[in-house]
Write a structure and sequence with these properties.
By secondary structure, the chain is an alpha/beta fold. The protein has 3 domains: 132 residues, Alpha Horseshoe (Serine Threonine Protein Phosphatase 5, Tetratricopeptide repeat); 156 residues, Rossmann fold; 166 residues, Rossmann fold (3-Layer(aba) Sandwich). The protein has 23 helices and 13 strands. A 7-stranded parallel β-sheet has the order 3-2-1-4-5-6-7, with helices on one face. A 6-stranded parallel β-sheet has the order 10-9-8-11-12-13, sandwiched between helices. The longest helix is centred in the N-terminal third of the chain and has 21 residues. The N and C termini lie far apart (67 Å).
């Protein structure tokens, strides 16, 4: 047996430590194929900052040796995927630009290879992973469109493409609805022969299941879901949680104390997961993931329970067969628009979700401008929501208010660098303060004491951040949208009687923010009103929300 064959045999057996030893001891000059195997083995054996660095160096060497061959292309794709994995590995734990070096090099190599090899779906998919981590939304959508035009979108890339279009202003609901319906054709139909039949036995209580990949100690979904789990009538209902993530922290442990059962299905195939949930004889299953990255949309296409509802984790239609209902409120979806959503819309009377309150001692804080002598705007939204249109409008507001500041937050330095660049183009970079994340949530909430006025993003509005802001007595200027995810701010503000802070368009958004910032008495009175109104509003009235929620389900 040749040394190359021996290495390939060990690789098939996943004996990575033996491969690393053999290659390092037998090869002085390593061919491209061997370098690929060595780098993959390193990352399979151990993931650390140092092993990523070593492996990336070897992938790069393999690519540079065979730039014009399939081996070289494979090495480059591996390099890009490993770089994306490295960025994920360092996320929230590294404030340096360690991964940025490799991300920038990936872009350079990608452009080079794209010119040489032309269209290649694996190359493009790896490129999209890189551009995502550089917050280059426009570029991401260009390459998703290329995959779409070549009819080369798999289920994962199709859902991601639709998901990221939510951030763009040019996509209206009619476009969204068109492509989600097309998505349905990409979701596999599983043969009934592989699935157990749904039980026809009637349960003594209504059994409700929630499927999520986001339940942990810090994710916002956890806190909104807790609202109803804290208050459900155990004589009428049983509640179950199906987890689609491997790691279970104290956030999951807390749910175990609240509800009737939690089950982890993250390691189950789609067939296994459907059969598992059907075996529990669940009456109503909630999808609270939608088209997010960890979605299990195939389960709902093939029906896990007699009634299936989309709620909470995704603010738009899914467009798929067998998703029966979508929970919204009259401010999110207007009655004359229900035909733009593939699901039957269930309307809660006030607001589509509710927070039971933050573990933070509430008190009315004075507006920061009283001490600072300048206005401080703020937005703690996901940086993907801060697109070029948002930056342009916010920059215009800052230019209209002398000495004003804007505070934003991001977990990574490269995100901060990117957004600062956008503000620099608009010549207001000196007015921007970018803060790193706070390890403790109480410290995060305390930052609202530094903000006079919160600015909502568009078209994808903030949700959790708006709830936080209002809890702390900080007004949120938002803009009226055209569908569910672009009207979240409208619904939130209407439910605290702040219609006057809902702008009709971009010009009105600027006008309302500037008017609020320049009229100090008006700003002070608005802050006082919000502080007093918040705690009694539908946003935080958990008792009423829970009654409305479960009464709605009883009617189904």
């Amino acid at each position: 047996m040749t040394i190359n064959n021996e290495i390939k045999k060990l690789f098939s057996q996943k004996k990575f430590s033996e491969i690393i030893f053999l290659i390092e001891s037998k090869f002085e000059e390593k061919p491209s194929e061997i370098l690929n195997i060595l780098a993959i083995s390193r990352l399979s054996e151990q993931r650390s900052r140092e092993t990523y660095k070593q492996a990336l160096t070897e992938f790069e060497e393999a690519y540079l040796k065979e730039k014009n061959s399939q081996d070289g292309l494979n090495a480059l794709i591996n390099y890009m995927n490993a770089t994306a994995d490295l960025d994920d590995y360092l996320a929230f734990h590294d404030t340096s630009n360690f991964s940025k070096f490799f991300l920038d090099k990936s872009v350079k190599f990608f452009r080079e290879a794209e010119n040489k090899f032309g269209y290649n779906s694996k190359l493009i998919s790896s490129g999209i992973r890189i551009f995502k981590r550089l917050n280059q939304l426009d570029t991401i959508l260009i390459y998703y469109k290329k995959l779409y035009d070549q009819n080369d979108l798999n289920l994962q890339t199709f859902t991601s493409w639709i998901f990221f279009n939510n951030y763009k202003t040019y996509w209206k609901q009619k476009d969204y609805n068109k492509f989600t319906k097309l998505l349905d054709t990409h979701i596999p139909n599983i043969s009934n022969e592989k699935l157990i039949s749904q039980s026809k036995k009637k349960n003594d209580k209504i059994k409700i299941g929630f499927l999520s990949a986001d339940i942990n100690k810090s994710h916002s979904i956890t806190f909104f879901l807790k609202t109803i789990c804290n208050l459900y009538n155990k004589k009428d209902f049983e509640l179950y949680l199906f987890l689609n993530h491997k790691i279970e922290d104290e956030g999951v442990e807390n749910f175990k104390k609240l509800i009737d059962g939690t089950y982890n299905i993250s390691s189950l195939s789609d067939i296994e997961a459907i059969n598992f949930i059907r075996n529990k004889n669940i009456d109503i299953t909630f999808d609270i993931m939608g088209l997010t990255s960890s979605n299990r949309i195939t389960l709902f296409k093939n029906r896990v329970s007699p009634i299936q509802i989309s709620w909470l984790g995704y603010c738009n239609t899914l467009g798929i067969k067998n998703m029966d209902y979508l929970i919204a409120d009259p401010n999110l979806i207007y009655k004359n628009e229900i035909d733009q959503y593939s699901e039957k819309v269930l309307f809660l009377p006030n607001i589509w979700n509710c927070h039971s309150g933050f573990e933070f001692s509430r008190q009315e804080y004075p507006a920061p401008f009283l001490k600072n002598n300048y206005i401080t705007f703020g937005s703690f939204n996901n940086f993907n929501k801060i697109n070029s249109s948002v930056v342009k409008i916010w920059s215009n507001i800052l230019k209209n208010i002398p000495n004003s500041k804007l505070i934003i937050k991001s977990p990574t330095k490269k995100d901060i660098d990117y957004v600062e660049h956008l503000f620099d183009i608009n010549k207001v970079k000196e007015s921007i303060s970018c803060l790193p994340p706070e390890k403790e949530f109480i410290n995060h909430l305390s930052l609202y004491q530094k903000i006079d006025i919160a600015l909502d993003t568009f078209p994808w509005n903030g949700v959790t951040t708006s709830f936080e802001s209002i809890w702390m007595g900080v007004p949120v200027v938002t803009m009226k949208g055209y569908n569910f995810n672009s009207r979240c701010g409208e619904s939130i503000n209407r439910n605290i009687k702040m219609d006057e802070l809902i702008a009709l368009d971009e010009d009105d958004y600027i006008k309302k923010a500037v008017n609020l910032a320049t009229n100090k008495d008006y700003l002070t009175s608005i802050r006082k009103k919000i502080y007093n109104e918040a705690i009694i509003s539908p946003l935080f009235n958990a008792d009423k929300f829970s009654r409305d929620f479960f009464n709605l389900l009883k009617k189904l």
